[in-house]
Amino acid sequence: MSADPLAWLVSLEGVPSAFAGARDGIDVVLRDRGLRRTSPEMTAESLLRGAHASGVLEGSASTLAEVRDGQGDEISADAVRVSTELLALIPVVRRAPLQAFARLHALAGHGTLPADRLGRPRDAESAGLLRTVADLVTATTEAPALAVAAVVHAELVVNAPFPSHNGIVARAAERLLIATKGVDEKSLVVPEAAHLALRAEYESNLRGYASGKSSGIHSWLLYTAEAYAAAAEASPLVRSAE
């Protein structure tokens, strides 16, 4: 039996309890506020809000209203294109995470990059990094599902394995894993909106993770637990469109 590659996560002070609290917060929103109120339209709204927020984090200047009306800028259009196919990738990421990551990038980069660069890593080192991240997705682990999503997100952002759109891909992968691993199967919480609302902390903690220091990684994990709790409150189940 292979060793658990994410066992170290559950040994970090405060991390298991932080993620347990975040999961409880998500469960409360989905169970108590979502009872008899969920619909495909709710999921579509959540995905749209997420695409808008992810686009802004990537440099878009479009408002949510502009994105909703199909009048957003190119970056927001890239993020929306990813969101429209995201949940169809659930069975793909379960069996072939590398294929799912490639598809996310192909969607994001469509119209921006040459066709032969869509879904392809920058170089051999980046290809190896993607294989390592894919192994985390399929590993048998005791780590909380939300923690796995957080690590995958950070690895894809800080290592930038694709020639473009790495932030959009990373945030889409995070949402995809939260749905795939059964935390939020209908994708009603909005982690991208939480990261945007907490942008200073989001970007600071990603820099800390990129340092490779244990303190930076620890801080990123604690931050994401906070963000996932905020993601539940950003759900259309809770908050009406602005």
TrEMBL record:
InterPro entries: Fido (IPR003812), Fido-like_dom_sf (IPR036597). Residues 96-226 form the Fido domain. PROSITE patterns: FIDO. It comes from the Bacteria. This is Oxidoreductase. It comes from Nocardioides silvaticus. The lineage of its organism: Bacteria, Bacillati, Actinomycetota, Actinomycetes, Propionibacteriales.
